[in-house]
Design goal:
The protein has a domain of 124 residues: 3-Layer(aba) Sandwich (Cytidine Deaminase, domain 2). It is 35% helix and 28% strand. The chain has eight helices and twelve strands. The chain has a six-stranded mixed beta sheet. The protein has a four-stranded mixed beta sheet with strand order 4-3-6-5, covered by helices on one side. Strands 1-2 form a two-stranded antiparallel ribbon. β5 and β6 form a beta hairpin. The protein is globular. The termini are far apart.
C-alpha cells in the first residue's frame, strides 16, 4: 500500500493509503526478433503473449506459439516465444517495415490500409438473452480483484450463455486485458464463440477486432461504441451490445441466426 493525502472540498486533509495498479514495459520477442513494447500489468504474461500473437495475426492457434520464456529486467519485462506457421512471414515483414520507416508518409498509408482490411467472418450463433448480461455484470464485480483494489484496471471476461463467468483477466490497459483473455482461452482450449465476452473497456474498433480475431461471436461492453466499432462489428457479423448496466443494455448489432 502507498501513502497519499486526500484533500476534500472543505479544505481538510487526511492521510490515506492506496494501492497503485502495476504498470511496466513488456517487450515481446518472437523467433529472436523484437516485435513490440507494451505498457501493461506484468501478470498472466503467458496468456498476454499468446493472445497478442493471435490478435496480431502472428498465430492461427495457440499451437503456433511455443517456448514462452519470461524475464524480468531492470527496465521492465521481456517475453520471448517461438512462432511457427503463416505468422512468420508477417513477423519478418513487420520488422523489415519498422527498419525502413521514414517521414515519407508511406507508413501512414500502410496503417490506413491495415485498418480497412476485412475481418474474418464470425461463426453463426444464437441470440443472447439480456438476462445473461445482467447476471454476468453482477458476477463480474467481486471477481475484479485488481480493479476493486485500485480503481484503475480494466477487465475482460468470457461468460457462458447463462451469464456464468468462466475466465477473467485484468490489466491497466483495455487492449491488454482482452489479449490476456484471448490467450488464456486459447491455451486452455476454451471456445470464445460460445457465450459472450464482457469488457469494461471503451468499445473502440480495436476491442471489436480483437474479439473477432479471438473467435468471439458476441461482445458486450459497458460503454457506447465508436462509429467505426459498429461498422466493423456489422461487417464481421459480430453481435454487439453496449452501455451494459444493472437494469438496461443497448443492442447495437444483432447478427444472431
Amino acid at each position: 500500500m502507498n501513502k497519499a493525502t486526500k484533500v476534500s472540498s472543505d479544505g481538510t486533509h487526511r492521510a490515506v493509503t492506496r494501492a497503485w495498479v502495476p504498470e511496466a514495459p513488456v517487450a515481446f520477442e518472437f523467433n529472436g526478433l523484437a516485435y513490440a513494447v507494451m505498457m501493461a500489468t506484468p501478470d498472466d504474461l503467458e496468456d498476454f503473449c499468446t493472445g497478442f500473437a493471435l490478435s496480431e495475426g502472428l498465430a492461427a492457434s495457440a499451437t503456433d506459439i511455443s517456448d514462452i520464456a519470461i524475464a524480468e529486467v531492470e527496465a521492465g519485462w521481456i517475453v520471448r516465444a517461438a512462432l511457427t506457421g503463416l505468422g512468420i512471414s508477417q513477423l519478418t515483414e513487420r520488422v523489415r517495415a519498422r527498419v525502413a520507416e521514414s517521414s515519407c508518409g508511406l507508413c501512414g498509408i500502410e496503417n490506413l490500409a491495415a485498418v480497412a482490411k476485412p475481418l474474418p467472418k464470425v461463426a453463426r450463433h444464437v441470440a443472447l438473452e439480456p438476462g445473461a448480461i445482467f447476471a454476468a455484470l453482477t458476477a463480474l464485480r467481486p471477481m475484479q480483484v485488481m480493479g476493486n483494489a485500485t480503481g484503475a484496471a480494466h477487465a475482460a471476461a468470457h461468460a457462458a450463455a447463462d451469464g456464468t463467468i468462466s475466465c477473467l483477466r485484468e490489466d491497466v490497459g483495455r487492449h491488454n486485458a482482452m489479449d490476456k483473455l484471448i490467450g488464456a482461452s486459447a491455451r486452455s482450449g476454451q471456445n470464445l464463440g460460445s457465450g459472450f465476452i464482457l469488457s469494461t473497456a471503451r468499445c473502440s474498433y480495436e476491442i471489436v477486432e480483437k474479439a473477432v480475431r479471438g473467435g468471439a461471436t458476441t461482445l458486450v461492453c459497458i460503454s457506447l461504441p465508436t462509429s467505426l466499432a459498429v461498422e466493423r462489428a456489422a461487417a464481421a457479423g459480430l453481435s454487439l451490445w453496449a452501455l451494459a448496466r444493472d437494469d438496461s443494455v443497448l443492442l447495437v448489432n444483432d447478427a444472431s441466426t
